[in-house]
Every structure is written in C-alpha cells, then in structure tokens.
C-alpha cells in the first residue's frame, strides 16, 4: 500500500506527472507515519506550488525488487530510511500483526512461540527477517550511493523529534522551518504530538501501542542474534546507533 502526503491533484507547472522527489522507504514500524506527518509541518512539504512531494511505502526497504525499480524510475531521488532498535522493531511488528489478527477474528500466538521453535530462533519469522537491516541495506547500496540515503534515528525521533527533522530538512535542501513550537508532549499518549496551522494532533491510536513483555531468555536470544547483523550494518552505513 502506498501512502502519500501529496494531497494536491494537479502536477507542478512544466511537468506532466507528479513523481515524488523523496520517498520514505521504511522500515515498517520504524516510525514512518510519524516522520511523514512531522515533515508535513514544513510549508514546502504541503499542497503548495513549490512543494516537494514525499511518499511513504514502508515495505520498500525489505523488498528485493524496490531498489532497482526506484532507481530505474528516478536515480537521483532522495531516500529517507527511518530505523529503530531492530529488537524493538520485531516486537512492534508482532504487536501490529497481533491486533490486526484480533480484529479479523484470526487466532493469535504468544510472541515467544513465533520467535523460537525447538529452542532455536525461527529465522522464517518475517518480523525477524525485516529486522536484518544489513541484508536489506546491501541491496539498496547496489543501486544508490550511501549519500543518497538519509537514515533517521527512529528512537531519537520518539525522544526528541526536532533535531532529527532538522537533519532531514538539511538533507532535502529545505529551509529550516520546523520549530520547537510545532511539538508538544502528550502525557496521556506518552509521545510527542504535532501543533501546526493552529491545530494540535497526535498520531492514530495504532501508533505508540504498548508492547508485550517478552520472556527474558527469548529476548536475549533475539538480541544476541541481531547484534552481529547490527555491527555489519554500522560498517555499511559508516555510522553507529545505540541499539541494545
Ligand atoms: P509502536 O506502536 O510499536 O510504539 P510506523 O508508522 O512505521 O508503523 O511506526 C510506528 C511507530 O512509530 C510506533 O511503534 C511508535 O513507536 C513510533 N513513533 C515515533 N514517533 C511517534 C509519535 N510521535 N507518536 C506515535 N508513535 C510514534
């Protein structure tokens, strides 16, 4: 599914089709909705003639075909990738699927039963595969230079959104227009919400859901496994993150 912040219907003057100048390629559950909504605060990332268009498709990051196809479509497109601690991401992924299944009256399982089979980590579990950031990043770096992929620290965006957004403004060559007054902390939600154009809004209740408590030894097993992948990822992107 493609989600877009582009609410206008007419293409910009001199162009026949409004292609996005930037795409949030993922990662699923990384904070892609928050990033898109917060960038939307920016006057040039809105339905104005001068706007830049940003699309979000969280599934792209882990899609084997997306890098090649996007490169063929526009090899100079600026890519935004928001990542969070990959272990947290697995649990967030599980939580989303859990609630979707409940809604659709499908049976649900405890996260431990999906993560571990016969004592070993279940590598076929999609939520684990999607957290192998190094594996997916390699695929993108075959088609795009590292400089064209800006990584947003999703954990930092949760704690304090503005500095992460300022880095994105810079990456997209936008004037710095997003300000501290655009955010306020909502105690009830436990997350920052947005104040823009005289309106205040928080993200949908499906964003920022409480996570299940995962059995400690299973959690350690998952963390230990992801640690090596994280190290490889840090080398690939020449940057480290504070992941457990
Ligand atoms: P959780 O619901 O597991 O906490 P995505 O939009 O890619 O699906 O990411 C969802 C995640 O965005 C949420 O995962 C939440 O942690 C994170 N997030 C970041 N900033 C947020 C904000 N201001 N409000 C709500 N969720 C936010």
Can you characterise this structure?
- Belongs to the sulfotransferase 1 family.
- GO terms for molecular function: [heparan sulfate]-glucosamine 3-sulfotransferase activity.
- Disulfide bonds join 193-202.
- The chain has 244 residues and is an alpha/beta fold.
- The protein has one domain: 3-Layer(aba) Sandwich (Rossmann fold).
- Helices cover 37% and strands 16% of the residues.
- It contains 9 helices and 10 strands.
- The chain has helices spanning 32-39, 66-73, 86-103, 111-115, 126-129, 133-141, 154-159, 161-171, 216-237, and strands spanning 3-4, 22-26, 54-56, 78-83, 116-117, 120-121, 149-153, 183-186, 191-196, 199-201.
- The strands form 3 sheets. A 5-stranded mixed β-sheet has the order 1-3-2-4-7.
- It starts with a strand and ends in a 7-residue tail after the last helix.
- Mean pLDDT is 92; it is low at 1-9.
- Residues 28-34, 58, 92, 95, 157-158, 191-192, 203, 207-209 line the site of adenosine-3'-5'-diphosphate.
């Amino acid at each position: 599914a493609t989600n877009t912040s582009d609410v206008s219907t007419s293409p910009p003057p001199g162009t026949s089709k409004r292609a996005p100048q930037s795409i949030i390629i993922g990662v699923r559950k990384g904070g892609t909705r928050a990033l898109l909504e917060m960038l939307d605060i920016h006057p040039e990332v809105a339905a104005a003639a001068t706007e830049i268009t940003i699309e979000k498709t969280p599934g792209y990051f882990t899609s084997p075909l997306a890098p090649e196809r996007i490169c063929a479509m526009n090899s100079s497109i600026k890519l935004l990738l928001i990542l969070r601690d990959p272990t947290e991401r697995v649990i967030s992924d599980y939580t989303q699927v859990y609630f979707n299944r409940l809604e659709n009256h499908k049976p649900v399982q405890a996260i431990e039963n999906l993560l571990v089979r016969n004592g070993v980590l279940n590598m076929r579990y999609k939520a684990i595969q999607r957290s192998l950031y190094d594996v997916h990043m390699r695929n993108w770096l075959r088609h795009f230079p590292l400089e064209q992929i800006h990584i947003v620290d999703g954990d930092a965006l949760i704690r304090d959104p503005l500095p992460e957004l300022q880095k994105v403004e810079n990456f997209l060559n936008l004037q710095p227009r997003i300000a501290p007054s655009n955010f306020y902390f909502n105690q009830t939600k436990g997350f920052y919400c947005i104040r823009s154009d005289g309106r205040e809004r928080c993200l949908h209740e499906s964003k920022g859901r409480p996570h299940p408590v995962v059995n400690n030894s299973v959690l350690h097993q998952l963390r230990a496994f992801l640690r090596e992948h994280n190290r490889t990822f840090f080398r690939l992107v020449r940057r480290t993150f504070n992941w457990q």
